[in-house]
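Okay, can you check this protein?
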Amino acid sequence: MHDNDHSEDGSRHGVTTKAVEIAVAAVILALGLVVIFDSRRVGYGWADDGPQAGYFPFYIGLILCAASAWTLLRAAFSDHAAAGVFVSRKKFRLVLSVFFPSVIYVLAIYFIGIYVASALFIGAFMYWHGRFPWIKIIPVSLIVPVSMFLLFELWFLVPLPKGPLEALIGY
């Protein structure tokens, strides 16, 4: 029998399902409100020639708000099985060990371009998460971005964000 109050590693510590449901419902409620207010800005009524630009988004925003408000109230005021641990601290740390480097990667694209950032990202993940030897890390972390460069820049002629290194070689 599976005890819902314990996480996979047997601990009672971590983020509860109730907290996650409340947080997600609150974020979706806020998103729905943004949609509603922006739809009002561009017009959400019916004009002589049909619906205005915000007509359908307005009602989608209302549906999002209603569904998320229901979920928020249900999660906040009921004592159903959602009180158990959603994710243990150990598992949550694993998620964050991927999330934060991914955010850094996205930010690095702006400053050093997608190709150099990708090489560093792939190399770092192979080293920290895969524990691969350098003899494998270096070729893979260089071949993948070079292949991306050839594919997008030369063959498809689709420019991707570039940094100082690409400027040095004339791109």
Notes: Residues 14-83 form one domain. Residues 47 and 53 are 10 Å apart (CA to CA).
